[in-house]
Amino acid sequence: MKTSADPVHDYLAAVEREGSALPADRRQELVADLAEHIEITRAERPGTPVGEILAELGDPRTIAATALAEAGGTATAGPGSGTPSWSTPETPARRGKVHPLVPLIMLTFSLPFIMIFPDPAGSLFGVLFRVLGAVLLCTSVHWTAVQKTSGVLLAAVLPTAVITSWNLADVPMSDAAAIIANLVTFALLAGVATWLWRVRRA
């Protein structure tokens, strides 16, 4: 069996083949979006192997199954073979239904929530916002595993560790220094949220 010299063409052809049950316009839109994402990623990360970029996108069968689930169908195993066939069930397929903005907003604004309501209850709600935002980010279908891990580390684990260490050290800090530290932390959270929004999957 001959293999094309263009792995991107092969990948997009596989997505189109696996998504044959999708409406033609939706299938073409899906392939076009993937092609655009690949092109942008290659421009932003020159020298990155194409195979690595395609691996980050995921398996063509999974992408097609997700697209079909969003259209109201799901993938089931074809009779007698390992090839999936497509059907539309009475109940929608289980998938991530949370808008990608939700975890990003929760992670970003957990800090201002704590600043506005510094009492124990406010701090507790701020921490819960951060934890829930991290959970929603990790369970979302809009990011790769690497992107999720980076987002959680930078937007949840790192700020929490720094704030906790500072409080335990009980180092006196002027109001101006505290405001600067909070602004720097908020800038970090906003920057991570912006990055995650830009690299999200459609």
What profile does the largest beta sheet have? 2 strands, antiparallel
Q: Any idea what the shape is? A: elongated
- Low-confidence segments: 73-96
Structural class: mainly alpha
Give the overall pLDDT as a whole number. Answer: 76
Distance between the termini: 33 Å
Percent helix range: 55-70%
Helix/strand order: HHHHEEHHHH
Number of extended strands: 2
Q: What's a concise summary of this model?
A:
68% of the residues lie in helices and 4% in strands.
Give a topology summary.
Layout: H1 7-18, H2 24-44, H3 50-57, H4 60-70, E1 74-77, E2 84-87, H5 101-116, H6 120-138, H7 145-169, H8 175-199
Antiparallel strand pairs: 1-2
Keywords:
202 residues, mainly alpha, two-stranded antiparallel ribbon, 8 helices, 2 strands
Describe it.
There is one protein chain. The longest helix has 25 residues, at 145-169. The protein is mainly alpha-helical and 202 residues long. Helices cover 68% and strands 4% of the residues. It has two domains: 7-87, no CATH class; 101-199, no CATH class. The two termini are 33 Å apart. Strand 1 (74-77) and strand 2 form a beta hairpin. It has a two-stranded antiparallel ribbon. It has eight helices and two strands; from the N terminus they run ααααββαααα. Helix 5 runs antiparallel to helix 6 (120-138). It has helices at residues 7-18, 24-44, 50-57, 60-70, 101-116, 120-138, 145-169, 175-199; strands at residues 74-77, 84-87.
